[in-house]
Amino acid sequence: MTSPQLTLYSNASPAGYPLCHFVDEAKTLSLIDKEQKSDWYLKINPNGRLPTLIDHSKGNFAIWESSAILLYIAQHFDTEHKISYDPVSEPKLYSEQLQWIFFAHGGIAPTNHFMRMAPETLPYAVARFKNELIRLISVLEERLKDREWLVGSRYSLADIKTLVRLIEAVQLEPNDYPNVQKWIERIEARPQTHKGLGIPERLDVEKYIKKPLEETRAMGAALFNFKNVE
Ligand SMILES: N[C@@H](CCC(=O)N[C@@H](CS)C(=O)NCC(=O)O)C(=O)O
Hints:
By secondary structure, the protein is of the alpha+beta class. The protein folds into 2 domains: 3-77, Glutaredoxin (3-Layer(aba) Sandwich), CATH 3.40.30; 91-224, Up-down Bundle (Glutathione S-transferase Yfyf (Class Pi), Chain A, domain 2), CATH 1.20.1050. Helix content is 49%, strand content 10%. It has 11 helices and 4 strands. The protein has helices at residues 17-20, 39-44, 66-77, 91-108, 112-117, 123-143, 157-166, 178-189, 191-196, 205-209, 213-224; strands at residues 3-10, 23-28, 52-55, 61-64. The chain has a 4-stranded mixed β-sheet with strand order 2-1-3-4. The radius of gyration is 18 Å and the shape is globular. The chain starts with a strand and ends in a 6-residue tail after the last helix. The structure holds glutathione (GSH).
C-alpha cells in the first residue's frame, strides 16, 4: 500500500497520525516556526494547517483536510480494500465508514480546546465539551459492545481516525470504558498501525491521554499562541 508517489507534510498531531503509515515520505513542519503559514505552504493548503498530502503521480496534486486525505489514500492506494470499504460493492459499509469518520472529525476533534489548551479554565466551556466528549465516548462504548471494529468485520479507516482523535480524551478513566479500551489495544497491536503511530514520533496513547493540564496548556501557548484577548 505504501507508495513513493506520496509526500505528507505533517506533525505529531491527531490530524496527522492516521495518515502516517500510508506514506513513504513524511515531512514534519515546525509549528513553532509557523512553517504552516509560509507562502509556499499556503499555496498547497490555503487553510494553513497540517497535514497536507502531495500526490506526485498526479502532477503534484495537493490534498488537505486530514479526513479527505485519508479517503484519497484509500481510493487510490487501497484498491484491494484491506483497510477501507468499497463504495460500489459495499455501499452500506462504505457509508457507515464515512459516518464514523465524520463522527470523529466533527464530533470528537473540537472537544479538546477548552479542556486542555485554553489559557484559563472557563467553567461553562469545559463542562460543555467534557460532557460532550463523555457522551461521544459512551456512543463508542455501546457500539463496540459486541463487535471488534467500528464498521463491518474488519479494521478500517473509521477505527484509526476515531482512535487518534480520542487521544485528546483527557481525564477519562479507561476502566470506565472497557469496550473502548479493548478496541484501542486491538488497534495498537496491528503492526502497520503501530508503525504509523511511531511517525514522526511515538504516540503513547495512554500517556497522551493523561498529560497534565499545565503541559497541554503550555503546548497550546507555544505552538498555537493561544492566549486571552486583551
Ligand atoms: N480540520 C483540519 C485540522 C487541522 C489542524 O488543526 N492541524 C493542526 C495540527 S496540530 C495545525 O496545523 N495547527 C496549526 C495552526 O493552527 O496554525 C484537519 O483535520 O486537517
